[in-house]
Structures are given as C-alpha cells and as structure tokens.
Task: structure prediction
Amino acid sequence: MEETEKKALLEKLADLPIMQYAFLDVSEIQFRERVRYICETECPQYGKSWACPPAVGTVEECRERCQGYQGAFLFTTPAQVQDIRDLKETLAAREGHEAVTRQVRDVFQEAGWKVRVLSTESCAICGACSYPQEPCRHPDKMFPCVESYGILVTELAEQNAIEFQMGDNIITWFSLVFFRR
Ligand code: SF4
Result:
C-alpha cells in the first residue's frame, strides 16, 4: 500500500478509539499448527462456532486464504472491566471492539479495498451458534478469531511494538484486517 493511501485511511480512522496499530506484510505473519493444537485441546469453543476451528478450515487453508492479500492492518482497542477473571464481564466488554472492527472494515471497503477480517475470541453474536446444522446467520458481521487461523497475535504485537499488558483489569482486544485491491 502506498504511503498516501495509508495516510488517507488513517485520517478516516482517526475518530475511532483505536489504541495502537501497525501495517504488516503478510509474509511476517506465521500460521502455526501449535496454535491450532491449543484451540483443540484448551478452548471450550472448539467445534462450537463458525468462527472457530474446525469450521474455519485447516491451518494450511487459512494460510493460503490470507496469503492472497497485499497486507494486513493490526489494531487494538482497550476495555476496562471490574474483574478481568470474570469471563462473562470480559466477553460483554468485547462488543465495543467488534463494533470498531466493523467500522474499520467499512473504512477499508469504502476506500476500494477487499478485506478479510479476523477478530478476537469466538463469535458471540447469536445466543446459540447455528454451527454445524445451519449456515452462519450473520456472515457479514461474524469475524473468525485470529487464533483460529493459527496466528499468535501476541507475537505480532511484540514484533510491532504494540502493548498488550496494560495493567490490572484492562483488556487489550485485537483485530487483523487483511486487504487487497
Ligand atoms: S453470527 Fe451466529 S451463527 Fe454466525 S458464527 Fe456467530 S454465533 Fe455462530
């Protein structure tokens, strides 16, 4: 992406509560089977959502899908909670980040970019996910989890000097927007 195109996008994103961001080369993103193994063995959402494995495909399929893009925009938003160990409260605090992610997607699309968006945690739009009996009810709003693609988002953050340990009871949410013409 040209510097002038980045500048124009950033001007349009300036009013959103984005804490930090980085433009990435897709080649610097690793797609790891090890991350998928953690989904499979440790995440209660494995096999329960269109936003998670195995519904998102194999790690190799995810890598091939993403490598068709020119670059990626990684960004964070913060959320303050009373108790970060309270999963219900933590997940409820995520909706603001999902709304910002939809706005970021729209800014890229309005500028003529085709996008693939990954966000944070499993999708929670519906009370009960339709997976696997019926197709996803909101494919335009649903963003697969970054980790479901085998991507370790904290690794990308460290590589790009993005803070993710903001102190007690502050959550850092991540999204990753792949873009191409
Ligand atoms: S939008 Fe609904 S059906 Fe689609 S992944 Fe999310 S919870 Fe499941």
